[in-house]
Amino acid sequence: MSVSDAQSKQLAQLIAQGREWFVPDCAKTIDFMLEAVALALQLGDAEQEAQAQLLLARSYWALGNLTAGHAAIARLEILDRKIKSPRLNGDFELARGRLYFSASEYGPALKSWCNCLKIAVSIAAVDLYIEACLGVGNVYFAHQQAGDALRWHEIALEFAQNTGDLELLTESYLHVAADLNTLGQFELVLSLSKKGEAAFYQTRHQSWLADWYSYRGEALLALGRLEEAKHWLHQAWAINQQTTYLWSQSLNLLNLGKVYVALQEYTQAAEYLALAEHKIASFGSLTLLLRVYSQMAELGQITQNHQMAWENRRKYHELAIQNAQQLAKDKLNTALERRIRELDTQLMVLQTRQENVMLRQQSSADSQLLQSLLHASLQDPLTGVGNRRLLDQEMPVLYQRCRDDQRPLSVLMVDLDHFKRVNDTYGHAIGDEVIRITAMILLQSCRGGDLIARFGGEEFVLLLPGAVGATAVEVAERIRARVAAYNWVEFHPELQATCSIGVAELGDELNADELLEHADQALYQAKKRGRNRVESSQ
């Protein structure tokens, strides 16, 4: 065997060892890959260097070293252009998206994952498809759109259930559990937790088993089952102390701090939260830092440690402004939304290819689970009414049905007056209560067959099938009066809230969007004419 052959064999062995160590110890993978990169450069082997750089980028990302991760990605981009392999290009976009996302650069992350999805469709790479769906869902999650996040994550879970790949299956389960906890579907999290547990016992990712226990503990905590929650969170921490995954450790510590606050064991709560802050600061997750500052401010208030409460409240508000600026910068703009909608259609190609006997013979329990997930993805987590996705899904159907049956249909668009002033003056917590109470009033003012959806922010849309315009105006006046008369001072002595409502009745509109636009125009007139009033487009 020649020297170059021996070196090529050594290079292949280094990369194989790096892959083997990636799950149990990324630091060892980095050591192997640095040696592999040097040897690949010496041999002029671009393809093997690309594989080594990819593993380096993934390892640095997993350990929270984003600067080193981006350096590996920059070199991989050069190699990717040279090699021109679709699979390598997909892996590159997936890894780059993760690095962007970890740095809270959501727009670039979404672009990378959309590119990855397109490649996955073109080469029928199911693993890439699943990972990219998880990524796109995470961008929605970061933008506090948990229902849309769940839609993408449940797609990933459905495919992962039919791949036989335990790593993809457990990763998908984790993302869905996080969405469901955010949506307040705690019983469903516990049901999912039992269903998926066997897969986690078999995976090599011990930190994922810890996350699974942590999400279970979070659900139990929300349900008031504190001792059970503490048990599972300590089970998670016992595992996490043996790993190097900072995200898993931080999430675990946050939940431990929260459960000890609930148990009124404040000294231990403070210790866990301080440790969580230290770990989160080392990799700079804005969302987790916001959580820890909020919990520490709450703890300071409960224990009457005013200095602690003030300092953490200040940190929270400073970081919240930074996070809001980042979200505004990377807002899901129209072009990106359009790209995602196009992908919805394109990805059906891959979905059709992957349908098999296992999918067709899916058990009734699985079907019920997916139906539950679907319901959660159509619900606004703050108010419990439908979300924008539900409206987009149901309104065109209802519009066409009423038109075909020559049945009346009216639309109400409800907007809280001067809501920004409410948030700025009294805080977002009280603002959330105003939105929640308004939704309750809407539910109490409508019939069982009416559809209520939170359109966005402080806006709601109501669809009233069978109601002519005059009836809809009466309903709108009833809602307006109830909002104005509500005893808002229970939240703050000076708080008052009113709403304006636009009403439109189905006429000669060409589609559902045009009918909604007419309601919006009527709402504009209500605002223009002084607010706290109802206007009709007729």
Q: Low-confidence stretches at least 5 residues in length (pLDDT < 50)? A: 345-366
Kindly state the percentage of residues in helix.
over 70%
As a whole number of angstroms, the C-alpha radius of gyration is: 26 Å
**Strand order, sheet with most strands:** 2-3-1-4-5
Broad structural category: mainly alpha
Order of helices and strands: HHHHHHHHHHHHHHHHHHHHEHHEEHEHE
CATH architectural designation of one domain: 2-Layer Sandwich
Catalytic activity: 2 GTP = 3',3'-c-di-GMP + 2 diphosphate
Organism: Chitinibacter fontanus
Enzyme class: transferase
Protein name: diguanylate cyclase
Condensed summary:
The protein is mainly α. 74% of the residues lie in helices and 6% in strands. The chain has helices spanning 3-22, 26-43, 46-62, 66-83, 86-102, 106-123, 126-142, 146-160, 166-182, 186-202, 206-222, 226-240, 246-262, 266-281, 286-302, 306-329, 334-354, 357-360, 364-377, 388-404, 419-426, 428-445, 469-485, 512-528; strands at residues 409-416, 451-456, 459-465, 499-505, 534-536.
Fold topology:
Blueprint: H1 3-22, H2 26-43, H3 46-62, H4 66-83, H5 86-102, H6 106-123, H7 126-142, H8 146-160, H9 166-182, H10 186-202, H11 206-222, H12 226-240, H13 246-262, H14 266-281, H15 286-302, H16 306-329, H17 334-354, H18 357-360, H19 364-377, H20 388-404, E1 409-416, H21 419-426, H22 428-445, E2 451-456, E3 459-465, H23 469-485, E4 499-505, H24 512-528, E5 534-536
Parallel strand pairs: 4-5
Antiparallel strand pairs: 1-3, 1-4, 2-3
Helix pairs in contact: 1-2, 1-3, 2-3, 3-4, 3-5, 4-5, 5-6, 5-7, 6-7, 6-17, 7-8, 7-9, 8-9, 8-19, 9-10, 9-11, 10-11, 11-12, 11-13, 12-13, 13-14, 13-15, 14-15, 15-16, 21-22, 22-23
GO molecular function: diguanylate cyclase activity
Organism: Chitinibacter fontanus
GO cellular component, one term: plasma membrane
